Amino acid sequence: MSITLDILEVGARGDGVADLEGKRFFVPYCLPAETVEAEPLDKRGDGTACDLVEVLAPSRHRVPAPCLHFGTCGGCALQHWRRDVYAGWKNDLIAKALAQRGVKAPTFEAPVTCEPGERRRADIVLRCQGKRILAGYHERGSQNVVDVGTCVVARPKINTAIAALRLAIKAILRDGTSADAVVNETDTGLDVLIRPHRKFELTLAIRETLIALAESADIARVSWGDRATAEPVIVRRTPQLILGDVTIEPPPGAFLQATKRAELVMRAGVTAWLGEAARTADLFAGIGALSLGKPGKLSLFEYDRPSVAAVDATARKLGGNRVAVQLRDLFRRPLSTKELDAFDAIVLDPPRAGAAAQCAELAASKVKRVVYGSCDPGSFARDVRTLQDGGYRLEKLMPIDQFLWSAHVELIALLTK
Ligand SMILES: C[S@@+](CC[C@H](N)C(=O)[O-])C[C@H]1O[C@@H](n2cnc3c(N)ncnc32)[C@H](O)[C@@H]1O
């Protein structure tokens, strides 16, 4: 049975939040001050998740969504919100998380916003359903696949690859089977890793299909298999990322910042805020996108083997002993305070869970400058509180909206001691 709700705010997951008779409700695709009809579904946290049935009284900030799939596709949650008001909400997510942890925050730097058509990394689901191949993203809250013609946030070349993958995979998948494709746009072209969801022998016929796929969509490299064991089937050009004066060949399916603009802004933050630090450590370094090319000695720490191998190959090409990389699980074995004290500056850019154990060690260190990149305001605020208790000040913070129209937000921050 549906109920009528007044939406109070948009919560951290991008849903409208309402209170009715002391109970909390979460409704997708709503905006503050709207009255909506909603269908209560399941319990979620301290409230109930609902389906939106109808917007009865729309907000004056509601705008037409630019994508046909909006409302079904799980990729975007907030295309219906006027851009400036939406941008302010993203800043508030960070400010609220810091305030909840009692962190003293500076006035934020002007936020960096990314535009439609800028996403250079996409995880595409490929599924054979009867005679059809579906190629796109999961539906919101479901394992169903939305067959996406054009993704408005993705780079045009990624859309070309989705269309070509849909055609090519028809010759590979049988009814009821699926795969996914990590599509990265590098600085020298598309790098596609196809991961079948069950064991598939890489036959000659599949190889020929993948070679034809690469030709048809001008893909630089197509690989097959898991990230750890991926086999490049065709390399028409070497995928490369250009990081200042340094060039690196990312492994198939490598983590890339979601937009090139965000990568450049974050690199510029590291350069400007760390200055000429003689010895820098980059923790959770991935392929070194934030630090490679920096002056001085650089030590990178990362637990993904293919990324470490890629950085090591680049370090060897550079020669000398300026760049070193270590395979290390920083959740289980964070750098100790003593190890950290060997550096003048630290860059850290952990996954969504943040870096609790590493920040406990860092808080007790003598390191003067820390640049922290984060994609989760909650874990960031928790870690900064630990650093603040250890004597660090949060000096600068720049919000970066590289996950356009989702509830996620990136940021880069400077802490000093
Ligand atoms: C947000 S990405 C940042 C990568 C890099 N800084 C960049 O800008 O491309 C987080 C990185 O942390 C790595 N990572 C995740 N868990 C880790 C762990 N326990 N120890 C070390 N690295 C980890 C991931 O493999 C990934 O490369």
Shape: flat
CATH homology superfamily name of the largest domain: Vaccinia Virus protein VP39
In sequence order, what are the helices and strands, one letter per element? EEEEEHEEEEHEEHEEEEHEEHEHEHEHEE
Structural class: alpha/beta
Biggest beta-sheet profile: 8 strands, mixed
Q: State the end-to-end distance.
A: 57 Å
Strand fraction: 25-35%
Radius of gyration computed on alpha carbons:
23 Å
| Contiguous uncertain segments of 5+ residues | none
Helix fraction? 10-25%
**Overall pLDDT, averaged?**
96
| Quaternary class | single chain
What is the CATH-assigned architecture of the largest domain?
A: 3-Layer(aba) Sandwich
Spatial ordering of strands, largest sheet: 6-21-22-20-19-16-17-18
Q: How many domains would you count in the coordinates?
A: 3
* Total helical segments: 8
CATH topology of the largest domain: Rossmann fold
CATH class category name of the largest domain: Alpha Beta
Query: What is bound: which ligands?
Result: S-adenosylmethionine
- The number of strands is 22
